[in-house]
Automatic annotation (TrEMBL):
The keyword Hydrolase applies. This is 6-phospho-beta-glucosidase. Signal peptide: none annotated. Belongs to the glycosyl hydrolase 1 family. Its EC number is 3.2.1.86. SUPFAM superfamilies: (Trans)glycosidases. It is an enzyme of class 3 (hydrolase). It comes from Metabacillus niabensis. Keywords: Glycosidase, Hydrolase. InterPro entries: GH (IPR017853), GH_1_N_CS (IPR033132), Glyco_hydro_1 (IPR001360), Glyco_hydro_1_AS (IPR018120). Gene3D superfamilies: Glycosidases.
């Protein structure tokens, strides 16, 4: 690969989320947020699915987000390490409940606003561009309890107020924004994606797609406000991506794979193209769903489309219409997938498919013809810290090397990619399992699944490797 493969101003860096890194879950006036109610252990998944109501932490349960890796107090130390690696960008999220503890307070919380001022100032001091997600699996619990979260149209107004507040405050510091992290997760983990809790007998699909409409309207209002308030900024959407392969070339399998992809593309079709696609309208009709829209919603969506497509890529998926094949689905990933016999898997059962990364990037660019931003990609693995404080994570280097090489090939294919922020440049709490042992970072954090450890940071082998990748602008892998 030549030095010219990646653009000169390519944004190399890493990505974290407030709820998985910051900790300090009630400090500085912060309110309780949805992720603060996700314990480790058997209750976690039921709460994530919206099947188990939980509005306060349960005594005796361990909540990893409450301390996380204490980024709230240690961000200067961590940013210095990112700067040493040569980061051009760091993707972070703002915790809505740090700015508005209840989500709909009359005035924003100054201590919360100041925290992000300090964070962005520290990044800019080191020449690192903040890339900011407005909502990363984060709804203030008060809005879930009192309004039913995103099933309620009122959240659109609360979100718009929140977005305008942070645009006004950080307009001179943040030039890259995203509205909702992995917006399609609303269909798979409804409490995580949209703070939805279901009562027995409710039509879940109806509630999910109504909530989706509210998020899409809120996203369009945020895009409108961003373009008006920060004309030189770029604001994008964010998709949990990974193309679906048909298990065979049987037309039914091919059609099923297309439908699985469309389930996710639906959100980005609206955010990027500005209208509900025909296949979605048919899906609503076939399933007896009625999406309540207010006058002007369709015009708003059409007039306020995103500037770029942010996406995460960890794995491809596969699907089949054969019941026998379907009975052998892989475990581990949120997205159900039949086992792909051609691919290896991670320790958590996620397929490892670098070529799928190139295919997915091409698929998204062909579909939307807008710049792409790879805002998550990485390998969750068990890392062992040696007695001398070293971590040999050659397997992570191998994973990232192959994926970055395929990203380079996608750029050669003509795909416009503006940056790459790998997931978890420092070990953080796993979003899906709440574990610390599922590590992604170039930096090891001394903490275990039960919250024990010194929180001391150690550079892994991949740290120096990624530093060279950035130094060479992707030419040296």
């Amino acid at each position: 690969m030549s030095k010219s493969t990646f653009p000169e101003n390519f944004l190399w860096g890493g990505a974290i989320a407030a709820n998985q890194a910051e900790g300090a879950y009630l400090e500085g006036g912060k309110g309780l947020t949805t992720v603060d109610l996700l314990p480790t252990g058997p209750k976690r998944f039921e709460i994530m699915l919206g099947n188990l109501e939980s509005f306060t932490p349960i005594e005796g349960e361990f909540y990893p987000s409450h301390e996380a890796i204490d980024f709230y107090h240690r961000f200067k130390e961590d940013i210095a390490l990112f700067a040493d690696m040569g980061f051009k960008a760091l993707r972070v999220s703002i915790a809505w409940a740090r700015i508005f503890p209840n989500g709909n307070d009359e005035k924003p919380n100054e201590a919360g606003l100041k925290f992000y001022d300090d964070l962005f100032d520290e990044l800019l001091k080191h020449g690192i561009e903040p890339v900011v997600t407005i909502a990363h699996f984060d709804v203030p619990v008060h809005l879930v309890k009192e309004y039913g979260s995103w099933r309620n149209r009122e959240l659109v107004t609360f979100f718009e107020t929140y977005a305008k507040t942070i645009f006004k405050r950080y307009k001179n510091k943040v030039k890259y924004w995203m509205t909702f992290n992995e917006i399609n997760m609303l269909l798979h983990l409804p409490f995580v994606g949209a703070g939805l809790v279901f009562k027995e007998g409710e039509n879940k699909k109806q509630i999910q797609y109504q909530a989706a409409h509210h998020q899409l309207v809120a996203s369009a209002l945020a895009v409108k406000a961003c373009h008006e308030m920060i004309p030189d900024a770029k604001i994008g959407c964010m998709l949990a991506a990974g193309m679906t392969y048909p298990y065979t070339c049987h037309p039914d399998d091919v059609f099923d794979a297309m439908e699985r992809d469309r389930e996710s593309f639906f959100f980005i079709d609206v955010q990027s193209r500005g209208e509900y696609p025909g296949y979605a309208k048919r899906f609503f009709e076939d399933h007896g769903l009625t999406i309540e829209m207010e006058q002007g919603d369709e015009e708003l969506l059409k007039a306020n489309t995103v500037d770029y497509i942010g996406f995460s890529y960890y794995a491809s998926r596969a699907t089949s219409t054969d019941p026998e094949v379907l009975s052998k689905q892989t475990a581990g990933n949120v997205f159900a997938s039949v086992e792909n016999p051609y691919l290896e898997k991670s320790e958590w059962g996620w397929t490892i498919d670098p070529k799928g990364f190139r295919i997915t990037a091409n698929q998204l660019y062909d579909r939307y013809q807008k710049p792409l931003f790879v805002v998550e990609n990485g390998l969750g693995a068990v890392d062992e810290l040696s007695a001398t404080g070293e971590v040999d994570d050659e397997y992570r280097i191998d994973y990232l090397k192959k994926h970055i090489a395929e990203m380079g090939e996608a750029i050669k294919d003509g795909v416009e990619i503006i940056g790459y922020t790998s997931w978890g440049p420092i070990d953080i709490v796993s979003a899906s399992s709440g574990e610390m042992k599922k590590r992604y970072g170039y930096i090891y954090v001394d903490k275990d699944n039960n919250g024990n450890g010194t929180l001391k940071r150690y550079k892994k082998k991949s740290y120096d490797w990624y530093k060279k990748v950035i130094e060479s602008n992707g030419a040296e892998l």
